[in-house]
Design brief:
Layout lengths: L6 H9 L11 H8 L3 H14 L2 E3 L6 E3 L1 H31 L2 E8 L2 E8 L14 E3 L4 H8 L3 H15 L12 H14 L2 E4 L6 E9 L5 E10 L5 H22 L5
Antiparallel strand pairs: 1-2, 3-4, 3-8, 4-5, 6-7, 7-8
Helix pairs in contact: 2-3, 4-8, 5-7
Length: about 260
């Protein structure tokens, strides 16, 4: 342990000792195992616990691996199983539509952005890959909610409306449960969702669902741009381009489900 100068090296030297055969360690026994002093190991484990990478049992005070590593592992799986296959299609859609294009999934009742291609027209959005956004105020989120199976939709809306409670980002944001449920029915009927300055003034987005080959909604695809460019008569054209991209993605992802 002493020859490992980097804190990163020390961290992984500690983490590698958590195995299926030995999933829990006390500070003293781990320090003895890796040949380091107890205070150093305690400091590292304490920091890892605060970050959610390790978990300290409240009774035994032994440490095990935390859920953060599981989450990071899921991101790797998401990239290899989904993003690597869909990114070329995202580029093609962005070329055709000339606006910023996103792909997102529903995670923890929120929109989770998994990929993005910037608009060639110079508009830069604050979203980034790995960021979250509310489902109720975005086209990506609303279209995902609209195409969920009824029971799953009901549970998700309960969390959004009762637990987290919608916040108004602009005067156009939907915060009423009754209004949101009505719009979700309309979205499912039309096949696409609009965010008309609901998350940010001056910004309009149109989103459509992405299905896997079991016809389960697994993600959403959207185009975002200034309200001045998203004239009502252009929406149908945007939807058609997004649909072409979504169909191509469906062919590539097989039975993928996040």
């Amino acid at each position: 342990m002493k020859e490992l100068k980097s804190s990163v090296h020390k961290t992984f030297a500690i983490l590698e000792h958590f195995t299926n055969k030995k999933p829990e360690w006390g500070v003293t026994e781990l320090a003895e195992e890796i040949g380091s002093n107890k205070s150093t190991v305690y400091r590292f484990l304490s920091d890892l616990d605060k970050l959610g990478i390790a978990y300290k049992h409240p009774v035994t005070e032994k440490y095990s691996l935390g859920l953060k590593l599981f989450e990071l592992g899921c991101r790797v799986q998401l990239k290899s199983a989904f993003v690597d296959k869909t990114h070329p299609e995202l580029i093609e859609v962005a070329k055709m539509i000339s606006e910023t294009v996103h792909i997102a999934i529903l995670k923890n009742c929120q929109v989770f952005h998994v990929d993005k291609v910037e608009s060639p027209q110079g508009l830069k959005l604050s979203t980034h890959v790995g960021s979250f956004a509310p489902a109720y105020s975005t086209s990506l989120g609303k279209v995902l909610l609209a195409f969920l199976p009824p029971k799953e939709q009901e549970k998700t809306l309960d969390v959004i409306l009762k637990d987290t409670k919608p916040v108004a980002f602009t005067k156009h944001t939907i915060t009423s449960g009754k209004t949101l449920k009505k719009e979700l029915k309309e979205i499912k009927s039309k096949g696409y969702a609009l965010d008309k300055e609901e998350s940010e003034l001056g910004l309009v987005c149109v989103g459509i669902p992405i299905f896997n080959q079991n016809n389960e909604v697994v993600a959403s695809l959207s185009a975002s741009g200034p309200a001045t460019r998203f004239e009502e008569e252009n929406v149908a054209n945007y939807v058609a381009i997004l649909k072409t991209g979504a169909d191509a993605i469906q062919e590539k992802i097989g039975f993928f489900k996040p």
